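@channel sequence for tomorrow's demo:
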Amino acid sequence: MVWEDSPSHVCRGGDKRALAFCCPPVKPCPVIYALEDAKLTPQEYIEIKEKFAEKTKLSQGEGTCFGSLVWCCKPSKPCPLRDMVMRRIGMSVDEYMELKKQLSEELVGKHESNTKESVTVLSETFNVSEEEAFKTLQQCDNDLKKAAKLLKMKNLEF
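structure tokens (generated this afternoon):
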């Protein structure tokens, strides 16, 4: 995978880097808090994404919710509209994720991976090895909440 430590969607607890996968801020949702964290106004966010789309294949997306792949979510979330457009324009998941990573860097700058910190927290909280915590986090597509739920369920089994 091109973006190994890609965050979960903002609406699933992902960090501000996940703004690359968010819709325009048209309703009250966690995107507002991520924008505050990134020190971006909704208008700046929209402008950055639209300018980025203009110079990449993310500008395409007729038939998607907001008419452009720049507003589409991660491939881990099923979406036939996004997938249809990607097939039509010959865009691979790797190319899509590389562009989303570049978009994220335009929105919030380069980000040092917080995977190590997440692994440590999971390991200490659920009394598992760091190796098990890391594997669980990877299995959950870097979704810290999902990994915590899975480890909690494993602890309940004992």
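heads up for whoever presents: Residues 10-108 form one domain.
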